[in-house]
Amino acid sequence: MMKITTAFFAFVLSMTIFSANAHAEDSTAAQKEWTFLVYINGHNNLDSYGAENIKGMEKVGSSDKLNIVVQWASEDNGDTRRLLIQKDTTNSQNVTSPVVQSLPQVDMGDYHSLTSFVQCGVQNYPAKHYFIAVWNHGNGWHLQNATGDMHANDISWDDNSGNHITTEQLGVAMGEAAKIIGHKVDIYGSDACLMAMAEVAGEMKDSVSGWVGSQETEPGDGWPYATFLADWAKN
Protein backbone atom coordinates (compact mmCIF):
# COMPACT_ATOMS: atom_id res chain seq x y z
CA MET A 1 0.00 0.00 0.00
CA MET A 2 2.81 2.43 0.92
CA LYS A 3 4.55 2.00 -2.44
CA ILE A 4 1.44 2.54 -4.50
CA THR A 5 0.33 5.46 -2.29
CA THR A 6 3.69 7.17 -2.76
CA ALA A 7 3.48 6.72 -6.51
CA PHE A 8 -0.09 7.97 -6.46
CA PHE A 9 0.89 11.15 -4.60
CA ALA A 10 3.73 11.77 -7.03
CA PHE A 11 1.40 11.46 -9.99
CA VAL A 12 -1.26 13.71 -8.52
CA LEU A 13 1.23 16.31 -7.31
CA SER A 14 2.55 16.70 -10.84
CA MET A 15 -0.86 18.07 -11.82
CA THR A 16 -2.54 21.45 -11.41
CA ILE A 17 -2.46 23.67 -8.31
CA PHE A 18 -5.58 24.12 -6.22
CA SER A 19 -6.55 26.84 -3.74
CA ALA A 20 -9.30 26.97 -1.13
CA ASN A 21 -13.07 27.25 -0.96
CA ALA A 22 -15.29 27.76 -3.97
CA HIS A 23 -18.10 25.62 -5.33
CA ALA A 24 -20.10 24.75 -8.43
CA GLU A 25 -23.84 24.20 -8.23
CA ASP A 26 -25.22 23.50 -11.72
CA SER A 27 -24.52 23.04 -15.42
CA THR A 28 -23.87 26.78 -15.86
CA ALA A 29 -20.91 26.64 -13.48
CA ALA A 30 -17.56 27.87 -14.71
CA GLN A 31 -15.14 25.22 -15.88
CA LYS A 32 -12.49 24.39 -13.30
CA GLU A 33 -9.15 22.65 -13.73
CA TRP A 34 -10.19 19.34 -12.15
CA THR A 35 -13.25 17.43 -11.00
CA PHE A 36 -12.60 14.51 -8.65
CA LEU A 37 -15.51 12.01 -8.73
CA VAL A 38 -15.50 9.44 -5.91
CA TYR A 39 -17.96 6.51 -6.08
CA ILE A 40 -18.32 5.28 -2.47
CA ASN A 41 -20.17 1.96 -2.18
CA GLY A 42 -20.94 1.42 1.50
CA HIS A 43 -23.45 -1.38 0.95
CA ASN A 44 -21.15 -3.86 2.68
CA ASN A 45 -18.90 -4.20 5.73
CA LEU A 46 -16.80 -1.16 4.73
CA ASP A 47 -19.71 1.21 5.34
CA SER A 48 -18.28 2.93 8.42
CA TYR A 49 -15.16 3.97 6.52
CA GLY A 50 -17.19 5.91 3.95
CA ALA A 51 -18.05 8.74 6.35
CA GLU A 52 -14.49 8.65 7.70
CA ASN A 53 -13.04 9.14 4.22
CA ILE A 54 -15.49 11.93 3.42
CA LYS A 55 -14.47 13.67 6.64
CA GLY A 56 -10.88 13.41 5.40
CA MET A 57 -11.90 15.11 2.14
CA GLU A 58 -13.64 17.85 4.13
CA LYS A 59 -10.35 18.80 5.74
CA VAL A 60 -9.47 20.30 2.34
CA GLY A 61 -12.71 20.68 0.39
CA SER A 62 -13.44 21.92 -3.11
CA SER A 63 -11.70 25.04 -4.33
CA ASP A 64 -11.72 27.56 -7.17
CA LYS A 65 -9.81 25.02 -9.29
CA LEU A 66 -11.11 21.70 -7.95
CA ASN A 67 -14.53 20.11 -7.54
CA ILE A 68 -14.66 17.14 -5.15
CA VAL A 69 -17.91 15.28 -5.77
CA VAL A 70 -18.99 12.06 -4.04
CA GLN A 71 -21.75 9.53 -4.65
CA TRP A 72 -22.21 8.02 -1.21
CA ALA A 73 -24.26 4.89 -0.56
CA SER A 74 -24.48 4.07 3.14
CA GLU A 75 -26.65 1.71 5.16
CA ASP A 76 -26.83 4.38 7.86
CA ASN A 77 -28.35 6.93 5.47
CA GLY A 78 -30.82 4.67 3.71
CA ASP A 79 -30.75 6.78 0.55
CA THR A 80 -27.86 7.42 -1.85
CA ARG A 81 -26.42 10.92 -1.69
CA ARG A 82 -24.42 13.05 -4.06
CA LEU A 83 -22.30 15.57 -2.20
CA LEU A 84 -20.21 18.55 -3.20
CA ILE A 85 -17.38 18.31 -0.70
CA GLN A 86 -16.67 21.57 1.10
CA LYS A 87 -14.15 22.32 3.78
CA ASP A 88 -15.51 21.77 7.28
CA THR A 89 -14.43 24.60 9.58
CA THR A 90 -16.60 23.40 12.50
CA ASN A 91 -14.63 20.26 13.45
CA SER A 92 -17.91 18.34 13.38
CA GLN A 93 -17.83 14.57 13.78
CA ASN A 94 -20.49 14.32 11.08
CA VAL A 95 -20.35 14.87 7.32
CA THR A 96 -21.21 18.56 6.76
CA SER A 97 -20.92 18.92 2.97
CA PRO A 98 -24.17 19.81 1.18
CA VAL A 99 -26.27 17.07 -0.41
CA VAL A 100 -26.76 18.25 -3.98
CA GLN A 101 -28.92 15.27 -4.91
CA SER A 102 -30.68 12.58 -2.87
CA LEU A 103 -31.61 9.36 -4.68
CA PRO A 104 -33.53 6.27 -3.60
CA GLN A 105 -31.16 3.48 -2.63
CA VAL A 106 -28.95 2.88 -5.68
CA ASP A 107 -27.52 -0.48 -6.76
CA MET A 108 -23.84 0.39 -6.50
CA GLY A 109 -22.92 -2.96 -8.04
CA ASP A 110 -24.48 -1.91 -11.34
CA TYR A 111 -21.97 -0.20 -13.60
CA HIS A 112 -24.76 1.95 -15.05
CA SER A 113 -24.93 3.65 -11.64
CA LEU A 114 -21.28 4.61 -12.02
CA THR A 115 -21.77 6.04 -15.50
CA SER A 116 -24.87 7.93 -14.31
CA PHE A 117 -22.77 9.51 -11.56
CA VAL A 118 -20.11 10.49 -14.08
CA GLN A 119 -22.77 12.02 -16.34
CA CYS A 120 -24.10 14.08 -13.43
CA GLY A 121 -20.61 15.15 -12.41
CA VAL A 122 -19.59 16.28 -15.87
CA GLN A 123 -22.85 18.12 -16.46
CA ASN A 124 -22.89 19.98 -13.15
CA TYR A 125 -19.18 20.30 -12.33
CA PRO A 126 -17.36 20.87 -15.65
CA ALA A 127 -13.59 20.74 -15.69
CA LYS A 128 -10.65 20.41 -18.02
CA HIS A 129 -9.56 17.20 -16.31
CA TYR A 130 -11.39 14.38 -14.53
CA PHE A 131 -10.26 11.91 -11.88
CA ILE A 132 -12.70 9.03 -11.25
CA ALA A 133 -12.25 6.74 -8.23
CA VAL A 134 -14.20 3.61 -7.27
CA TRP A 135 -14.21 2.90 -3.52
CA ASN A 136 -15.05 -0.59 -2.26
CA HIS A 137 -13.70 -4.12 -2.01
CA GLY A 138 -11.57 -5.31 -4.92
CA ASN A 139 -10.05 -8.67 -5.77
CA GLY A 140 -8.28 -8.00 -9.04
CA TRP A 141 -7.41 -11.00 -11.21
CA HIS A 142 -6.55 -14.42 -9.79
CA LEU A 143 -6.03 -18.03 -10.81
CA GLN A 144 -9.46 -19.63 -10.60
CA ASN A 145 -8.32 -23.18 -9.99
CA ALA A 146 -5.41 -25.59 -10.14
CA THR A 147 -5.62 -25.87 -13.92
CA GLY A 148 -4.56 -22.22 -14.26
CA ASP A 149 -7.83 -20.89 -15.67
CA MET A 150 -7.98 -17.11 -15.25
CA HIS A 151 -10.91 -15.49 -13.49
CA ALA A 152 -11.70 -11.82 -12.88
CA ASN A 153 -12.81 -11.11 -9.31
CA ASP A 154 -14.10 -7.62 -9.91
CA ILE A 155 -14.99 -4.59 -7.71
CA SER A 156 -17.83 -2.71 -5.98
CA TRP A 157 -19.92 -5.41 -4.32
CA ASP A 158 -23.40 -4.29 -3.27
CA ASP A 159 -24.60 -6.67 -0.56
CA ASN A 160 -28.17 -5.40 -0.84
CA SER A 161 -28.55 -6.29 -4.52
CA GLY A 162 -25.98 -9.07 -4.71
CA ASN A 163 -24.44 -7.37 -7.75
CA HIS A 164 -20.91 -6.17 -8.42
CA ILE A 165 -19.05 -4.43 -11.23
CA THR A 166 -17.08 -6.94 -13.26
CA THR A 167 -13.65 -6.13 -14.64
CA GLU A 168 -15.13 -6.01 -18.14
CA GLN A 169 -17.98 -3.74 -17.03
CA LEU A 170 -15.51 -1.40 -15.35
CA GLY A 171 -13.80 -1.06 -18.73
CA VAL A 172 -17.14 -0.38 -20.40
CA ALA A 173 -17.95 2.25 -17.77
CA MET A 174 -14.68 4.07 -18.38
CA GLY A 175 -15.30 3.93 -22.13
CA GLU A 176 -18.68 5.56 -21.60
CA ALA A 177 -17.11 8.08 -19.20
CA ALA A 178 -14.58 9.10 -21.86
CA LYS A 179 -17.43 9.70 -24.32
CA ILE A 180 -19.31 11.79 -21.74
CA ILE A 181 -16.19 13.85 -20.97
CA GLY A 182 -15.18 14.22 -24.60
CA HIS A 183 -11.66 12.88 -24.09
CA LYS A 184 -9.95 10.10 -22.15
CA VAL A 185 -10.51 10.00 -18.41
CA ASP A 186 -7.40 11.76 -17.09
CA ILE A 187 -7.02 9.47 -14.06
CA TYR A 188 -8.91 6.38 -12.96
CA GLY A 189 -8.26 5.03 -9.46
CA SER A 190 -9.43 1.95 -7.52
CA ASP A 191 -9.58 2.65 -3.79
CA ALA A 192 -9.82 -1.09 -3.30
CA CYS A 193 -7.55 -4.06 -2.77
CA LEU A 194 -5.63 -5.89 -5.47
CA MET A 195 -6.84 -3.93 -8.49
CA ALA A 196 -3.46 -2.72 -9.82
CA MET A 197 -3.06 -5.53 -12.32
CA ALA A 198 -2.31 -5.39 -16.04
CA GLU A 199 -5.41 -7.45 -16.82
CA VAL A 200 -7.61 -4.83 -15.14
CA ALA A 201 -5.79 -1.90 -16.73
CA GLY A 202 -6.09 -3.55 -20.12
CA GLU A 203 -9.86 -3.21 -20.00
CA MET A 204 -9.57 0.61 -19.97
CA LYS A 205 -6.39 1.17 -21.97
CA ASP A 206 -8.26 3.04 -24.74
CA SER A 207 -10.31 5.27 -22.44
CA VAL A 208 -8.04 6.24 -19.51
CA SER A 209 -4.77 8.19 -19.59
CA GLY A 210 -3.53 7.59 -16.03
CA TRP A 211 -4.39 4.67 -13.79
CA VAL A 212 -3.69 4.07 -10.10
CA GLY A 213 -4.43 1.40 -7.53
CA SER A 214 -2.91 -1.04 -5.08
CA GLN A 215 -1.16 -4.25 -6.09
CA GLU A 216 -1.69 -5.59 -2.59
CA THR A 217 -4.43 -5.39 0.04
CA GLU A 218 -5.31 -1.97 1.43
CA PRO A 219 -6.17 -1.09 5.02
CA GLY A 220 -9.90 -0.86 5.69
CA ASP A 221 -9.90 2.92 5.62
CA GLY A 222 -8.32 3.01 2.15
CA TRP A 223 -6.64 6.09 0.76
CA PRO A 224 -5.49 8.93 3.06
CA TYR A 225 -7.66 11.57 1.40
CA ALA A 226 -6.81 14.42 3.74
CA THR A 227 -3.09 13.91 3.15
CA PHE A 228 -2.99 13.75 -0.63
CA LEU A 229 -5.65 16.42 -1.19
CA ALA A 230 -3.78 18.81 1.11
CA ASP A 231 -0.50 18.15 -0.69
CA TRP A 232 -2.23 18.53 -4.05
CA ALA A 233 -3.62 21.92 -3.00
CA LYS A 234 -0.25 23.17 -1.77
CA ASN A 235 1.83 22.19 -4.81
- Gross morphology: globular
Mean pLDDT: 80
Structural class: alpha/beta
Distance between the termini: 23 Å
By oligomeric state, this entry counts as single chain
Q: Count of helices?
A: 6
Radius of gyration: 17 Å
**H and E string:** HEHEEEHEEEEHEHEH
Helix content: 25-40%
Unreliable residue runs: 1-27
Largest sheet: 7 strands, mixed
For the biggest β-sheet, the strand order reads 4-3-2-1-5-9-10
Total beta strand runs: 10
Strand content: 25-35%
What this model shows, in words?
There is one protein chain. The protein has about 240 residues and is an alpha/beta fold. It is built from 6 helices and 10 strands, in the order αβαβββαββββαβαβα. The strands form 2 sheets. A 7-stranded mixed beta sheet has the order 4-3-2-1-5-9-10, with helices on both faces. A 3-stranded antiparallel beta sheet has the order 6-7-8. The longest helix is centred in the last third of the chain and has 15 residues, at about 165-180.
